[in-house]
Design a protein that fits this description.
The longest helix has 17 residues. Strand 1, helix 1 and strand 2 form a beta-alpha-beta unit. The strands form two sheets. This protein has a seven-stranded parallel sheet with strand order 3-2-1-4-5-6-7, with helices on both faces. A five-stranded parallel sheet has the order 9-8-10-11-12, sandwiched between helices. The chain is built from 17 helices and twelve strands. Helix 1 packs across helix 17, helix 4 packs parallel to helix 8 and helix 11 packs across helix 15. It is α/β, with parallel strands linked by helices.
């Protein structure tokens, strides 16, 4: 079986490729590296004209001719390699817009992949038409669009999410649905909106290669080190401001007991190393389940503040705040949870060990890779 993985978010496809390769499958990964994160790919398409003086030229061209030359460049690079993208048994798209380019160019690429390969599958592991529509429906107490819905932030602050419900992206969504065998979600934030959809195949937890993420044991009888990584492009959808407010309180209350490290927009290779010496990782607030960064930190035995809502506890049959700390949109509550850990450092060791065991049980690369193979094969046979 030959497998083509198209697009990359959060290293998901890289990990899946590692798992498939270990089992003897031939796998090719093509992506743009996901902007500044710069994830590796077998074939990496460059996002030209995105910075500096060239970006100014790009803006002028778009205003005059309505052509996004970055998107056109990515599309042209893809088709220069078109011979390498034919003859695969399985093609999996990371998103409805796997290269984050103009919808019409995404559609041209997906049409090509459909024509020259056997079966196409779609992941729901980030914002897309269905997840954004569900968030806008206000069926949950809060979502990634909380600050937009509450009128705290503007539409422009959420353009990367809200674009999926605009007419061009709705058209792309309908086109993708017609050409895929089915949709696979990666966590409860995407599983719940997909439930009942005719093309939904089910949820497969994110694959984590624990062999590359050893546990890092740190002493807890000295300063407690807290880490916050900020990506400005998803600052609002992650609810980072609640962490920042909580840290202000912690700085005042525990000035001599804690060390706080804040970084911004690091490439993946730097980011994954940057929190090694930290006990506590502040990941995201506005979610029910853990994203990829949180899971990798948990694999390293860190205490992670992230999505760990009642839906997640129920799904995995867990007790609250024993595996990860549920971060809610309330800075005072976050600060209180941090205070408990700072004043009871043995809990850091206990929760970190529980987190590692959880990753080994539910997110182990070998287990998850076999789940993908099973789902693909079942869908093909049907």
């Amino acid at each position: 079986m030959k497998i083509l993985l198209v697009g990359e978010y959060s290293r998901l496809h890289n990990s899946l490729k590692e798992g498939l390769t270990l089992l003897g499958y031939k796998v090719l990964l093509v992506s743009t590296g996901d902007f500044f994160k710069d994830y590796p790919s077998d074939i990496k398409l460059k996002r030209n004209f995105d910075t500096g003086f060239l970006k100014k030229i790009k803006v002028i061209i778009f205003k005059v001719f309505k052509i996004d030359i970055t998107s056109l460049s990515v599309k042209n690079q893809f088709f220069k390699h078109k011979k390498e993208f034919k003859g695969f048994d399985i093609v999996q798209l990371i998103n409805e817009s796997p290269f984050t380019i103009t919808p019409k160019y995404e559609q041209q690429i997906i049409a090509f992949l459909k024509k020259y390969n056997t079966k196409l599958f779609l992941l729901s592991c980030g914002t897309d038409f269905i997840s954004v529509s569900y968030a806008l429906s206000r069926k949950l107490p809060y979502s990634i669009l909380k600050e937009y819905i509450d009128g705290i932030a503007t539409k422009n602050d959420f353009e990367h999410s809200l674009k999926y419900v605009t007419p061009p992206y709705q058209k792309l969504h309908r086109f993708v649905l017609k050409n895929i065998e089915g949709i696979i979600s990666t966590d409860l934030d995407y599983h719940i909106p997909m439930m009942g959809h005719q093309k939904y195949l089910g949820m497969i937890p994110n694959p984590i290669n624990i062999n590359t993420l050893p546990v890092i044991e740190l002493p807890v009888d000295q300063e407690i080190k807290i880490f916050l990584g900020i990506n400005r492009s998803n600052y609002n959808t992650k609810g980072i401001k609640y962490f920042e407010e909580a840290l202000q309180f912690i700085k005042l209350k525990y000035a001599k007991k804690v060390e706080i490290k804040i970084v911004e927009s690091l490439p993946y290779k730097e980011y994954i190393k940057s929190y090694n010496e930290s006990h506590i990782i502040l990941d995201q607030v506005l979610g029910m389940d853990q994203g990829y960064n949180a899971l990798e930190a948990m694999a390293k035995g860190k205490v992670v503040f992230t999505g760990a809502e009642k839906e997640w506890l129920s799904y995995y049959q867990l007790e609250e705040n024993t595996i990860a700390i549920n971060a809610v949109p309330d800075a005072e509550k976050i600060a209180n949870e941090l205070s408990i850990l700072i004043e009871n450092p043995s809990k850091i060791i206990e929760i970190g060990a529980n987190a590692r065991r959880f990753i080994e049980e539910y997110h182990h690369l070998d287990r998850v890779t076999k789940m993908y193979l099973g789902m693909w094969n079942t869908s093909i046979k049907n």
